[in-house]
Amino acid sequence: MTTEATDPREVPNPTKVWAWRIVKWSLCGLVLVFVGRRAVRMFQESGTQDLEFSWPWAIAAGVSYGLGWIPSVWFWRRMLQSCGENVPVWDATRAYFCGHLGKYVPGKATVLVIRSGLLRPLGVPIRLSALTATFETLIMMGVGAALATALAPVLLSSEWVAKSPIWFQWFVTRPWLMAGLVVLGCVGLLPVLAKLLTAVVFKLTPLEMRGEGRSFELSAGLLAEAFGVLILGWGFLAISLGLTLQAVGGNVAITDLPILIGAVSAATVLGFVAIFAPGGLGVREGILIVTLQTLRPDVAESQAVAASVLLRLVWFIVEVIIAGTLYSLGSTNNHEQLTTDH
Fold first, then answer.
1. Cα-atom radius of gyration of the chain, to the nearest Å?
2. How far apart are CA 331 and CA 78, in angstroms?
3. Directed axis angle between helix 70-82 and helix 126-150, to 10°?
4. Domain range spanning residue 166?
5. Closest CA to 206 of 117, 131, 100, 118
6. pLDDT > 70 fraction of the chain, expressed in percent and rounded
7. Is residue 6 part of a domain?
8. For residues 140-177, b (16+ Cβ closer than 10 Å) or e, as one string?
């Protein structure tokens, strides 16, 4: 019987673990206090006379949000297929949406644990589930960051632009230029981005989930597919934001779609980067409140605050309903076992 030596670097230091937890929760608390106080002040100054509430618009926002993650499910399953794992659509969808709730745990590694745990009974190695799930998450956020960058000119207030240098004003007043540069950059750098993401994913995947066995390397072709389909997902999330604003009395038009896409992608990505905030709590709301109120002067401060809070509530309820329903219905393995028993 042999005993394998354990790499001391792989054994977490309890003191550091607790210190990091304290730091994360402290930062989260500070953000919530700051955003909460600002929201209350804006709400009080604006009053409630402009506020309304419409259930149909709120329900429509929830439906749009649920649809917004279907492209991500497709892409995650597409990566698993490229590794030889032909996971049924039902099981991939079930694991994805159940894992989605893991983002509310600081650090976001719980997402990987849930997804890989639900696919393990189907014979999918934990290593493969974790790696592809990490790829999907980073690429989804990467596409969102690219969209926010491309739409940056429409996200900047006229007052802020007026105070900027002349060369920057020239650049911002030509939004097509920024969008074109982002598109050309993404297309031209696809092979480099694919290799870079492959290296980053292995670093970000928890040590205990790397294990042995088959690995996964992202190809430029697969990354191009991801960019194409995940833009659709961000579009649905932006529509959900617009419908939520409509639900609290805001007046949203189709011409507002670029602002909505830029706002929701920037807020979601920055909330994701803030690993101390479960699900980007507080960070996302703060960015949305400022963005909506600044870029849409006709939107009252109380409407911007209410829309940001309602969006969080609607999205969370939809996630719980979908995850709870899919989990309770079980996997295809369970269904096949029941059929065999009968």
1. 22
2. 19
3. 130
4. 15-46+55-328
5. 131
6. 72
7. no
8. bbbbbbbbbbbbbbbbeeeeeeeeeeeeeeebbeeeee
